[in-house]
Amino acid sequence: MYKLVVFDVAGTIVSDDGVVIAAFEQAFNEVVPELWSEKSEEFSHYAKVTMGQAKIEVFEHLLGSRELAEKAAGAFQTYYLTRLSEAKAFDGIEQMFRSLRENGIKIALNTGFNRETLDQMIENLGWSDLIDATATPSETKAGRPSPAMLEYVSRQLGISNPKEVAILGDTASDIESGIRFGAGLKIGVLSGAHDEETLLGAGADVVVKDATYAIADLLD
Fold it and tell me: Does residue 157 have a pLDDT over 90?
């Protein structure tokens, strides 16, 4: 049995409903409107392909400027926070958390969102007493596919063996991060951005319909 399960957030345990992409589009249109009008299709495609990575890194790659990336990331956060109340947990997630905790398994979240956004989301969902640790690129200075966030929560919880950690995510970058970390189990979920072929191609050990379908693997 695993000692720690680390979940991605949007698309894995929380319904996205296109809000993340809408926030990207709002940020591009606000910060670089002329460039956005020329490259909206290219930028939107890249945002979808890199879903799960640190938002500021995605912006910096596309805009070629840290200064512009910081402005775009700020616009992204401002827009996303205005719609944060729309974020809803997928059915069965809270029950899954409680089942894991009853079996002595710790729960952590990692995300491409910044600290303010994640903390507000956890508060809105009423999960403060269910989550043992969290990580964002705000602390680690590196987003996925770097393993930095997985290393961060493992250190916080005193877990030194990556094989005792399972990770779940809906994107290739989630899986790649788990591989680099050396996680004992990498589970892809089909409730978010990427399809089964993409997740398996990234190295997922198993792919399930949604996170709740992974409970048997996690308690094995």
Answer: yes
Instruction: Say if CB 10 and CB 113 are below 8 A apart.
Output: yes
Q: Domain 4-16+87-219 in CATH: superfamily?
A: HAD superfamily/HAD-like (3.40.50.1000)
Claim: this prediction has a pTM higher than 0.70? yes
| Confidence band of 163 (pLDDT split at 50, 70, 90) | very high
Radius of gyration of the chain (CA): 17
Which phi and psi (to 5°) does residue 163 adopt?
-70, -15
Residue 1's CB is within 10 A of a number of other CB atoms, namely 11
Domain residue limits, the chain: 4-16+87-219, 19-85
Which ranges in the chain belong to alpha helices (H)? 19-31, 33-49, 55-63, 66-82, 93-102, 115-125, 137-140, 148-156, 172-181, 196-202, 215-219
Residue-wise pLDDT tens digits, 76-95: 888 888 887 778 899 999 99
